[in-house]
Amino acid sequence: MNRLKRMAIYVRVVELGSMSAAARELAMTASAVSQQIRQLEAETGIVLLLRSTRRLSLTEAGQAYYEDCARMLHAAQAADRRLSDLRDEPRGELRIAFPVGFSTMLAEALAPMLRAHPKLSLRLFAEDRKIDLIGERIDLAIRIGSLADSSLIARRLAEWRHMLVATPAYAQAHGLPDSPEALGTHAVLILSVLDQPEFIELHRPGEPARRVRVHGPILANSAEALLQMTLQDLGIMRMPGPHASALIAQGRLLPVLPDWSMAPIGVYALTAQRESQPAKVRVAIAALREHLEAAATA
C-alpha cells in the first residue's frame, strides 16, 4: 500500500475517531489499519497519534499533518467529482476542427446542442489543412473523404453522394457535357485534397464505370474557394449533394450529367482516443451524425 493510501487512511481514522470505525468503512481489519498508521509514522519519523484503551488523540504534529492530508484528500475527491461531471454532463469548452466548406452544416447540427446544454461552449477551427489534434488540443475533427492511416480514431458520421454542378451562365456560354467523356473538353475546377483529384469516375446502372481525366484553370485546397469561383461562372465543380441541392433549388447552380452518379464519400469524426470520451464529445458526435444522415437522405 503506497504512501498516499496510508495518508487517506490516517484522515479517516482522525475524522471517525477510532481505528475500528475506519476499518469498517474501508473494509479492512482494525489490525491492518493500525499497521498502516504505524508504517506512516515510521515513514514520517514522528508520532502522529497517542493511543489509549479508550480513545485516540492527536499530537501537535499529528494535527498539522492531518490538516494537510485532509486538504489533499478533499482536493482529490473534488477532482474526481469534476471528472465525473465532465464525463456525464456536456460542459466546458469543446474544440472542433473542420473544413471551411463544412461551416453551414456544422452550425445547423450543433446549434440545437448548444441551446440544450448551456454549460457547453465551442471553440471552432475552420481549417482545410489537416490539423494536429494532439498538438493543438482538438477534441473533435471533421474529415471528408478517404482517411490516411494514423493513430486517430475515426467514426463514420454519414456518406454523401457528390454531384457535378455549374452556373446557368456557364451553361449558356459553354454548354454542358452530354457524356462523361465530354467532361474532358470543359473547365473543371479541381479540389486538391481529394484522392486523385484530376480524375472523376461516373456510374450509371447497366453501364461500365467511366473514369475521366479532367483539367481546368483552378486547383485549390478549399472547397469553399472553388465554390466561389464556380459561382463566378469559371467552370464545373463537384460538391456534396446536400450543399449542391440547396444551391440548385435557389437557381444558382445547375446539375451536370444528372443521370450519372459518383461513389459516395464518407464524412468522419476523428478523436485522439477511443475510450473515455467526455460527454461534450459524445453529444457533439451524436448531433452531427443525426443531422448529416438526415441531410444525406433529404
UniProtKB/TrEMBL annotation:
Single GO BP term: DNA-templated transcription
GO MF annotation list: DNA-binding transcription factor activity; sequence-specific DNA binding
Record's keyword annotation contains Signal: no
Species this protein is from: Marilutibacter maris
Keywords: DNA-binding, Transcription, Transcription regulation
InterPro entries per the UniProt record, alphabetical: LysR-type_TF_proteobact-type, LysR_HTH_N, LysR_subst-bd, WH-like_DNA-bd_sf, WH_DNA-bd_sf
Protein name, entry field: LysR family transcriptional regulator
Source domain of life: Bacteria
Family, similarity comment: Belongs to the LysR transcriptional regulatory family.
